[in-house]
Write a structure and sequence with these properties.
Number of helices: 4
Shape: globular
Bound molecules: zinc ion
Strand order of the largest sheet: 1-2-4-3
CATH class: Alpha Beta
Order of helices and strands: EHHEEEHH
């Protein structure tokens, strides 16, 4: 699943953590569907960290990048959320940059949270 990585300024340890979380996301059917949708559209992202980031992670529809606050914010929930934002950027007409700082951004967050809840149900075995 490292084929989703375009460039990376992550340290070796951060990159190893990123790849292990990608593999975990791929193990679950909704996560695999998300990764396959990104991969089949040849989408690749720039991965980096920024200690000054507001929040644990961020997807930029302008840079097509995924930023983590640091190695401790690299986790299943954060990565899945940012990858889902990348999916939304691909599938919303003309992308999601149009919603930056606008009321529509609340819908973008709502969709990502709903996807995450559905994925957690699969992950926990409550849905089969
Ligand atoms: Zn979000």
């Amino acid at each position: 699943m490292d084929n989703l990585i375009n460039t990376s300024t992550l340290t070796d340890a951060e990159r190893a953590k990123l790849e292990s979380i990608l593999n975990k996301i791929f193990e679950n059917c909704t996560g695999a569907a998300l990764l396959n949708a990104l991969h089949s559209n040849n989408l690749k992202f720039d991965f980096k960290t920024n200690p000054n980031l507001n929040g644990l992670g961020s997807y930029s529809p302008i840079e097509k990048s995924i930023t983590f606050k640091g190695v401790n914010s690299m986790n299943f929930g954060t990565l899945q959320e940012e990858l889902f934002h990348a999916y939304q950027d691909k599938y919303h007409q003309v992308g999601t940059a149009q919603y930056l700082g606008k009321p529509g951004s609340a819908n973008i967050e709502f969709e990502a949270k709903l996807f995450s809840m559905i994925n957690e149900l699969y992950q926990s075995g409550m849905l089969a």
